[in-house]
């Protein structure tokens, strides 16, 4: 190859590029050179075409290229049962948990394939899975590797018994907790092994994290030693916190502190903490999270599904708290999730203040890409289209009617874009979804697995509903 000859690379993608780089560059007729799964160069198409050549070409002058979306919070094994939760409150312990427990390892693997197919079809290139059942862990991990989607696997197992005295039993009853001796230490050894195999700051497709799911089920030792692991491996400690009124009441009864205040007392509020939901965080608790430089995983559709509360997201943003959007198995589509955030926070905070800038579209896109990557501590490898990062990106049809008459591409993507415009979903330079076809998922086999799995969990939990599903 002569000095002036174009350098051979694996792939070149062309289109209008939303880079999400530090300057938030948008390149009108741009191109991305990709080799060995990594981005080699991003720039004007004329420049890239003169410097590189590739056998595989994606996109074109009318395509739209964006970073792949990041779903910052989900639970794969809920995928078969989510429809049975419609119109039911509360439903997590009563419907979701029993439906997950009844699954075999093979059925858990099927849920991963189903959720991954939904994600890839909707442009999600990274998901964050919070698993709490050790019997499913190997199947989940192996299936994530099989599918090839980038994943954060946050694992943990409850080590504490608890009892919640609900409102009408408090005349004669009180809430309590009791840790099970030795379980925190043994389970965290498993987490440490996973962190060693799949480092958060590594270059592989799997990134490990610590999951201390909730204050009720995890002991103080688990929290403090889990946080120490997250710091040592530069990973995250992920905690459902401030999710429902029962949790707040429980914490006040047992510890005389609100949930985030309790985390502060345990010494685990720092840049490694991902506070999941925090919909009931008080002003004081938001200040604690901000001072500790913690991040928030926010699932706007789940706010409506659970009807616990809508967090004061503009206040979190103003406090400087990083926010990552997650589907939490609702919709499994980041377009729907961004739009849900725009609508519910617009109705809750924008309308009453007559403020159309309560949550700009660019910030919602950040929460689905680079800010999410930062929150999950994987921004070294994904979240933006920059040289040296993995080629995790979407090719969208820029000629689609909803993208015509373009004035502000970021706003149009968030408000009007959908999975219908996605042509290809690429993870680490590998096209995993291409115009209705999945490279690593047998869709006919998956349909059969999903049908059988849905029937099984329905039989297990349908009678747990307070009311039967409506006929229409």
UniProtKB/TrEMBL annotation:
Domain Amidohydrolase-related stretches: 65-431
One example GO MF annotation: hydrolase activity, acting on carbon-nitrogen (but not peptide) bonds
Key word Hydrolase present: yes
UniProt KW keywords: Hydrolase
Recorded family membership: Belongs to the metallo-dependent hydrolases superfamily. ATZ/TRZ family.
Name of the featured protein: Amidohydrolase family protein
